[in-house]
Model the fold of this input.
Amino acid sequence: MSHLVSRQSTRDSAARVSADIAGLNSFDAVDVSVEQDVRRFLTLALQDVAKIAPDVIGDGACLDAELAMESVALIEVQVAIEDAYDIELDAIHVLELNEFAAIVKYISELVHSRTHSR
Done:
């Protein structure tokens, strides 16, 4: 039997993560701070939603290894990021990137593009 997760349930989880780490996405300074902010946000989301231990989350950690999680948790992390930064992630691209550092860079670039296009 497949388990379906409602979009509202996922958004509720995302809102909880966003509330837990409120203030982290104040990226008014330089681009380096955007990447640091995204790194902190993603790390905390992985800890909170996917229950991944903090010592496992590092630049070389991969979604197909150390960062493996249930698909529902992955969607919840994605929605949390999208809601927090007002961006849309390409989930397939994230899976293809696989490595934490590459995913942080990809998200940071989207955030940077969004903030500089307004």
